[in-house]
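ARCHIVE CARD
Drawer: 12
Card no.: 0347
Subject: one protein chain, sequence and derived structure
Cross-reference: see card 0346
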Amino acid sequence: MVLLFLILMVIASVAIGFFILIQNPKGGGLAGNIAGFNSQFMGVKQTTDVLEKGTWMLAIVIALLCLFSTFFLPDGGSTNAPGSGARPGTTQQQTPVVPGGGQQQPPAQPR
C-alpha cells in the first residue's frame, strides 16, 4: 500500500511540475498554445485559469496523499511488531554475551 502512495505522489509531483513550467505569468507563451489551442478557441485567459486550477488541485492531492500515507506506514520503532512473538505490553530481554564464548544469566525479574 505504501508503494501505491509513493507511485501516486511521484506522478502527481511530475504533473504539478509540468503545469507550473508551462504557465507564463504574463498570459502568453506555451499557456496559449497547448495542443494547438489558440486564443480563438479557449483564449489565453481561460487556459491560464485551467492551469492554475490544475496546479492547486494537484497540490491538494499531494498534500492529502502525504497525510493519508501515514496511516499505512508500519511502526518502525515498535519492538512488539506483528510476528515478533512478543505479547503486547511485554518487552523481550536479550542475554548479554561475555568475552570468551560464555553467556551470563539475565538478572532475576521481580514478581
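Annotation on reverse: Residues 41-70 form one domain. Residues 27 and 44 are 6 Å apart (CA to CA).
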